[in-house]
Every structure is written in C-alpha cells, then in structure tokens.
Amino acid sequence: MSQQDLKQLLKVIEQQLDWGSxxxxxxxxxxxxxxxxxxxxxxxxxxxxxxRLWGRVEYNHMPSGTTLDTLAKFAxxxxxxxxxxxxxxAGQNGNALTHAVPSPAKRKRGMWPxxxxxxxxxxxxxxxxxxxxxxxxxxAKGPYSFTSRPVTRSIPxxxxxxxxxxxxxxxxxxxxxxxxxxxxxxxxxNKHQFTSIYYRPGFYHAKLLINNKIVKQHNLLIPTxxxxxLIANYPIPVYLDSTEFxxxxxxxxxxxxxxxxxxxxxxxxxxxxxxxxxxxxxxxLKNFSFISExxxxxxxxxxxxxxxxxxxxxxxxxxxxxxCAKGCVSNLRLLNGGYFISGKDxxxxxxxxDLSQWTKLECKSDGKxxxxxxxxxxxxxxxxxxxxxxxxxxxYRFAGAGSxxxxxxxxxxxxxxxxx
Length: 420
Description:
By secondary structure, the protein is of the alpha+beta class. It has helices spanning about 5-15, 25-40, 45-55, 65-75, 80-85, 95-100, 120-130, 240-245, 255-260, and strands at about 145-150, 155-165, 175, 185, 195-200, 200-210, 215-220, 230, 240, 250, 270-275, 285, 290-295, 310-315, 320-325, 335, 340, 360-365, 370-375, 375-385, 390-400, 400-410, 415-420.
C-alpha cells in the first residue's frame, strides 16, 4: 500500500462523482459523500474521515484496511486488493486513472439503490445530492454523436441509444443512464446502438463516455402514463395496479396492500412511491405554487419517524421537501432546486409534525425565494437557484405506507395540474 495508490483511488472516485475539483468541496459535500458510501457499501466513513482523506485536515497516517476496502467498493471494485491489482501503474499506457475502471459486470444497474430501511432520508436526499453538483465541463469536441428515444410512456421503459464515437485501440466506451456512475454500462465500440431499461420516471442526464471522460450528453425525460404507484425493491420495483392505490378521493397504500405483495412491514419497512411525470404543462420555479396533503399510514417499529418525501422534478435539480415526526428532524434535508439545507446545522424543526394525521404542505415562489408552509404556517424559506428550472413532474415517497390528496400545481395564477 502506498500514498500513490490511495491518491489514484481518490481520483477515480472524484471522476465518478464529477463534482469538480475537491478543493471546492464544502462540508455538506462530504456529508453527502458519507451517505452515498453508507448506502452503497453499508459502511459509514464519517465526514471528518473523508475530509482527512482528501487532505482538508492534516493527517499523516495511512487509513485502515477497512477504510481502503470501503473506498474501493464505493468506486466499483471488490476490495482494495482488487483495485491495486487491476489498475495500470502511472506512466504505463497513459494515464492510470482512465484505466482504473472496474468490470461492468461488477456494477449495480438500478438508478436508485435498495431502500429497505425507514431512514428514507439517506435514500432520497443523499442520491438526489448528485444533482446538486452541476456538470460545468464542456463535453469534448470531436466526431461523436449520441441520441436516445424511449420506446413507450409506461414504466419500466426501455431507451434506445444511438451513438458513434472514434476511439483509440485501448479505449473503453460507456453509456451512463444518468448522473449516477453505478448506472454505467460498457458498450461495443464497433456498434452504434445500445438499449437500457429505466425502472423509475424522472429527468435524466444521459452520458457517452470514453474511459472516464464525458464526450457527449443530453437530457432525457422518462415519463409516466398518469399516476404510477410502486413499492421499492431491488433491482426491480414492485409495480402496483391502479386498483391497488387509486381511490375516488385520494391515492393510498395501506400495510395490507404491501403484505399482499409478499413484502414484510417489519423489522425494516419498505418504501412506497407515487409518480406523475411529463403529463402537464411545465411550471417555472421562479413563479409557481404547489399544494398537497399527505399522511403516513405506518408508524410501528422502525417506522416511528414517519418519513415522507415530496419531490418536484425539474428539468435540472429537483425540489425535495422532507417531513417527519418532530423527534426526527435532525435527519431532515431540504433540496431547493440548487443546494441542500441539512437539519444537522439548520433549524428544520418546522417540517416536523404528526404525520399520522393529514398534513398540508405548500410551496410558493415570488421570483426570489421559495417559501414553505405546513398546515398554513410558514416554516422555512430558501433562495431560488440562479439558473432557470421548470417543474416537469411530482413524486412522493413514504417510509412504510402513505396517502396523498388535494394536489395542485400552479404556474402563476394558472392551474397546470390538479389531482384528487
């Protein structure tokens, strides 16, 4: 083990994250990275440990074997030994970093990781954090083409990618479904089409890469056909028939619906989700209002925090509002379409409430700020992102089971979507 080996592994992670120079990373970035590593490897490397590894705090010791194995697994390798064995030393055949890519067979394929714990805050917010770091790099100029077309409006949805790229003999070519590097697939340099399945709707940034360098990318909307209900499961969610969650006056999943699908509620409750994407006129973040009522239908055991996420998907970074029981607000994160606000170092107690009862959430923007209301009372406000974003879809996630009603989205004074 050497410092050079460690530096190369950290470089691989930096390239996969694509957050820009680590010198510009802030404390919240290391917190997000901690959660991403925990979700993927089931091992927690604290934010302070990560800051030491990246040289933000003086530390002259080599990390432990457990830390090295965890970092290697996060980068897509089996362990530290597998990383050192498969990488090409610097100075041989070009830049070692472009060769330190694990076999595609060892990569996980789903857009979202498995969600089996009531700590929905880690799953939804930590992964959405990958949106926060915008890719400001201009794709390389060259003889490249990269387009895509979904084959249906239903979920799951296969997407056909058409590509052309001129590469060197030793190069590897990849298509990545989104910002998430674990959705990367190796493709044949001598062919021009590749298909991939998207198991959840949303607004994606598909990428064509040579080795670890993005050469082309484009936006890709994966819509729903009306409302979609599902129970989180890896690698493929359990999709609900409309009769299982759509009522005359609400959308609702009860614990009995989940157990009927052979999924247990305890000890770790599953996550249920509702989505409606790409079915209404878009609304700009700078001039919108949104109202919805939600309720969590399972409160036992590990579901005591009653986590609920409400997501406004945009054509860039989403808005995600988390609600929970009052005693759990320290775990909350708020994403305002541009950056995170953490309950660890901000007072998000206003988003704590009794979610066994119907709770009304409102979000409104005035061109400068987004204001958040709970049961008619303003509980927080954030600045709008500097760039233009438009709302293209709505999503809900419940730790356990949940209900939704009285949904309304406005563009200015114009109602662009309402449901139940």
